[in-house]
């Protein structure tokens, strides 16, 4: 429905293409493994969110942690996007990419004083504060910089997002947000915190949600609290409703971006600026992880396709038992189909990319792991001393390298010898 209307990534005559470029050509030029992204898909997704708001005052803040490549951030900044950051490092990235500081919101439970200072000096839009101790530290830091810290209180509405427990964030037992029952009391504390300026409320209940109900339930609670606090004299002019809209990895049927925005606006009611923080649903389906089959191995009652990508490039299967589509970039009707566990070279049993996949492949064939534009590269690691892989952006039917392959020397560059033992 909403999520691949235009089919920028599709088969033509048995070959996989991404916005007018054959994936095989990119793989031949840049080697495997590599990530490839379709800019047009990201742009369309962003526009779909932005236009769905109509005349409602709003800001779409891209959740940088989903994919933080500088070129992608630059392109989004040029569209006028806002950004949701969760660290000082992401702040530096967004500023370097030309992001407008007044469109940056800073989320996260563990902000440190130096990160707060940098964000205050940059003049960000607001801090989404998740606890009283954080509020106290922010007040202190803001006092030393001579600026008031604009904030939203991130509220934990105790709503079950119905998603994987590791990506559910809006339940009472999760570490995120201020329990809704404590919100009014926390607001009373604001009188003692002269360097804090309350501007809004925020929530983010989880990721990969495929139903509207948990969103609207959370938003109604946040909006109700906002009215209550406004009644008590607090200025609550912004509601940041977080990210979390799911995408179709398999047979999920998430609501369209337009339906999601409409439901949020209805639940939030009129009169306040609405912010959203989509990550996965902006960039996820725009990406491919391309990998080569190195070996086909016969186990006892199991077939393994050993590929050159691993949990180091795509951690989601190992971390969340996530399922992502795996397809050969050239269909091979001449080969018989076999059921494989697609695994990487890393020395961990958890190092699999997909289990029980029916594939018609031979060693040397190239596979695409679909919908890997979000939480792919940004979660990648150097485990087993594996250099991080290149990223390629396809824009205007042209493939451009936007991050080159790391070298092993770079991996070792920050390591130091023991004093007096250099030779
Ligand atoms: C991770 C995160 C997001 C983005 O979530 P998606 O599921 O990728 O849309 C938005 N806001 C906050 C606070 C987050 O932690």
CATH superfamily of the largest domain: Alanine racemase
Question: Averaging pLDDT over every residue, what do you get?
Answer: 95
> Tally of extended strands?
21
The profile of the biggest β sheet is: 9 strands, mixed
Describe the structure.
It is a single chain. The chain is an alpha/beta fold and 423 residues long. It has two domains: 3-38 and 285-412, Lyase, Ornithine Decarboxylase, Chain A, domain 1 (Beta Barrel); 107-278, Alanine racemase (TIM Barrel), CATH 3.20.20. It is 28% helix and 25% strand. It has helices at residues 23-30, 39-52, 70-79, 88-96, 113-122, 132-145, 183-189, 213-231, 257-268, 280-283, 316-320, 408-412; strands at 9-12, 15-18, 21-22, 34-38, 58-63, 82-85, 104-106, 126-129, 149-156, 178-179, 196-202, 238-240, 273-276, 287-298, 303-307, 326-328, 338-343, 352-359, 366-370, 391-395, 398-403. Strands 4, 14, 15, 16, 17, 18, 19, 20 and 21 form a nine-stranded mixed beta sheet that branches. An eight-stranded parallel barrel has the order 5-6-7-8-9-11-12-13, surrounded by four helices. Strands 1-2-3 form a three-stranded antiparallel beta sheet. Helix 2 (39-52) packs parallel to helix 9 (257-268). The radius of gyration is 23 Å and the shape is globular. The chain starts with 8 loop residues before the first strand and ends in an 11-residue tail after the last helix. The model has no long low-confidence stretch (mean pLDDT 95). The structure holds pyridoxal-5'-phosphate (PLP).
């Amino acid at each position: 429905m909403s999520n691949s209307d235009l089919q920028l990534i599709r088969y033509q005559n048995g070959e996989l293409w991404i916005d007018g470029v054959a994936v095989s050509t990119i793989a031949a030029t840049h080697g495997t493994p590599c990530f490839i992204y379709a800019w047009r898909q990201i742009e369309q997704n962003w526009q779909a969110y932005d236009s769905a708001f109509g005349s409602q005052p709003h800001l779409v803040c891209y959740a940088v942690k989903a994919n933080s490549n500088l070129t992608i951030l630059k392109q989004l900044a040029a569209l006028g996007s806002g950004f949701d950051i969760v660290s000082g490092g992401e702040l530096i990235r967004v500023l370097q990419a030309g992001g407008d500081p007044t469109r940056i919101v800073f989320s996260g439970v563990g902000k440190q004083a130096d990160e707060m200072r940098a964000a205050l000096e940059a003049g960000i839009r607001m801090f989404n504060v998740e606890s009283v101790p954080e509020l106290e530290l922010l007040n202190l830091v803001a006092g030393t910089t001579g600026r008031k810290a604009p904030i939203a209180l991130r509220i934990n509405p105790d709503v079950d997002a119905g998603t994987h427990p590791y990506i559910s964030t809006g339940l009472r037992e999760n570490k995120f947000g201020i329990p809704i029952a404590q919100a009014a009391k926390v607001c009373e504390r604001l009188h003692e915190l002269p360097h804090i300026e309350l501007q809004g409320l925020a929530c983010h209940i989880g990721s990969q949600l495929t139903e509207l109900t948990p969103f609207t339930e959370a938003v109604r609670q946040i909006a109700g609290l906002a009215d209550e606090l406004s009644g008590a004299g607090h200025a609550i002019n912004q509601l940041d409703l977080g990210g979390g809209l799911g995408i179709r990895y398999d047979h999920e049927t998430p609501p369209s971006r337009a339906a999601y925005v409409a439901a949020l606006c209805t639940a939030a009611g009129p009169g306040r600026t609405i912010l959203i923080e989509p990550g996965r649903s902006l960039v996820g389906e725009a990406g491919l992880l391309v990998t080569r089959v190195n070996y086909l191995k016969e186990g006892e009652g199991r077939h393994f396709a050993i590929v050159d990508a691993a949990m180091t490039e795509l951690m989601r299967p190992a971390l969340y038992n996530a399922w992502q589509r795996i397809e050969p970039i050239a269909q091979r009707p001449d080969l018989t189909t076999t059921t494989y566990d697609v695994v990487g070279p890393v020395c961990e049993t958890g190092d699999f990319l997909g289990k029980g996949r029916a594939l018609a492949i031979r060693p040397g064939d190239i596979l695409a792991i679909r919908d890997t534009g979000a939480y792919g590269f940004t979660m990648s690691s150097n485990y087993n001393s594996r250099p991080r892989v290149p990223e390629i952006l396809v824009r205007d039917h042209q493939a451009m390298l936007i991050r080159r392959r790391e070298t092993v020397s770079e991996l070792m560059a920050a390591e130091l010898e023991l004093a007096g033992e250099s030779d």
